[in-house]
Amino acid sequence: MTKRIDANPSRGPSDHSVRDQVVEAATEHFGHFGYEKTTVSDLAKYIGFSKAYIYKFFDSKQAIGEVICSNRLEMIMAIVNSAIADAPTASEKLRRLFRALTEAGSDLFFHDRKLYDIAAVAGRDGWPSAQKHEQRVRQLIEQIILEGRKTGEFERKTPLDEAAYALYLVMRPYINPVLLQYNLETASAAAALLSSLILRSLSP
Amino acid sequence: MTKRIDANPSRGPSDHSVRDQVVEAATEHFGHFGYEKTTVSDLAKYIGFSKAYIYKFFDSKQAIGEVICSNRLEMIMAIVNSAIADAPTASEKLRRLFRALTEAGSDLFFHDRKLYDIAAVAGRDGWPSAQKHEQRVRQLIEQIILEGRKTGEFERKTPLDEAAYALYLVMRPYINPVLLQYNLETASAAAALLSSLILRSLSP
Fold this sequence. Notes:
2 copies of one chain form a homodimer. Chain A is an all-alpha fold and about 200 residues long. Chain A folds into 2 domains: about 15-60, Arc Repressor Mutant, subunit A (Orthogonal Bundle), CATH 1.10.10.60; about 70-200, Tetracycline Repressor, domain 2 (Orthogonal Bundle), CATH 1.10.357.10. The first copy, chain A, contains 10 helices and no strands. The longest helix of chain A has 24 residues, at about 60-85. The N and C termini of chain A lie far apart (about 45 Å). Mean pLDDT of chain A is about 85; it is low at about 1-10. The interface of A and B includes residues 169, 172 and 200 of A.
């Protein structure tokens, strides 16, 4: 699961497992005490490594946070992809996409562990992992619209990129963890209502 | 502009002007130092009144904050109402409503003075002023949809309350100051794109 962050990919499997260990411990520690309040020294003490040893594997605290964030976002995309895989229509795919993103986001960042803090920093500071996730969601939306245009489910007048970006903007408050924290209670009802609105906007 | 907060409405015009003075000074002070970090004692010192004297006019710091928040929200609604007053169609009313809410919100809470702090607390703690504002916006949306249904601009199949609430949800990230802070840079472009999406969703 762990991604290479440092510049030396030839360190071999045992280094991999050290990296995994650091990421696992950091996930726990950040989950308890918050990402922003934790220093690499705190982390080193918690794991029982020296600070210098951790820096052999990760350039910075952010590099560790990026791996955790990437892992979570990978899990969200895996849930989303499996949710939409067998949807019979493009409309149903959009509904499931919205629902799965909302639910998986709530679970993985808020309920499973208190990792909201990392997600918030990642969103605020535009971490590559957060930007990549946004790109992937936008591409997925565009693909589904294209599919629905081909089958005649959706209208074809609106420029594709405009339609896709507007849909993304509707979903964004329930996808972006920084915004989702203010929408948690109403998120699933909102996702259903807004999916219907989106589908009305796409009807030919 | 100042609203009565205390229980004794018979104090007469001079008390009114004291209330105005307190609200004016508090607007300045909160704007500089933030609502949450300011105490009634700070405020009293700043104005040159005793704390007890301020408490003769306002029950609490929140009571003062409520007046400021109400005033700002009244100003936003006045701007909105004048923006939509002469719109030729219901569609154009919706576009102008969205644009005016977004722009006035950005200006009055973020640019004019740094009163975001009050708006955030009002939203978070469900102050009556914030709830009333939400109700008014939702009613206005419902009225405009009804108007467009009568003229044949909008579809009539979707239950009115569902259509209105879904529209409100689309606009909410740009109306609610707590959410708007994360959307400030993209707000006006988003308002335009989302207005078009909304209108597509309403087309007969």
